[in-house]
Specification:
Blueprint: E1 2-5, H1 10-21, E2 27-30, H2 38-48, H3 61-66, H4 78-87, E3 96-98, E4 104-106, H5 110-118
Parallel strand pairs: 1-2
Antiparallel strand pairs: 1-3, 3-4
Helix pairs in contact: 1-5
Length: 121
């Protein structure tokens, strides 16, 4: 199990608290420092069952500079979004937990973190 976090994020800290309380075995990835490649973002999107625009933080300054809210949200634009998330990792919704069963969850609530914990293979 891996969790992508921004240590300054309260939702990320809350997720770590739940994981620790449950004695979970996990690896922390500070994705702003250890930036995911486009291939890693594609893999996480596949595990999440989501599209890149569904995990984009459109209120961030970089999103506004890029005009992200105006970008098409369709298959033909998917790669453009993935590249933007890789080049501007602060745009990636957090925290993301890759569960042991091969799935992933955007763990913004305690319930979502517990869902990831239940997904042990």
């Amino acid at each position: 199990m891996e969790i992508w976090i921004n240590p300054a994020c309260s939702k990320c800290r809350g997720a770590l608290t739940v994981l620790d309380a449950e004695g979970a075995d996990y690896t922390v990835r500070r994705y702003l420092e250890d930036v995911p490649s486009p291939d890693e973002i594609r893999a996480v999107l596949d595990r999440l069952g989501l599209e890149p625009w569904e995990i984009a933080r459109t209120q961030e300054a970089a999103a506004k500079e890029l005009g992200l809210k105006e970008w098409p949200r369709q298959a033909g634009s998917r790669e453009r979004w993935i590249v933007a998330l890789s080049e501007h990792p602060e745009l990636i919704q957090r925290p993301i937990i890759t569960a042991d069963d091969g799935s992933a969850v955007v763990a913004r609530s305690e319930e979502a973190v517990r869902d990831a914990l239940r997904r042990r293979s």
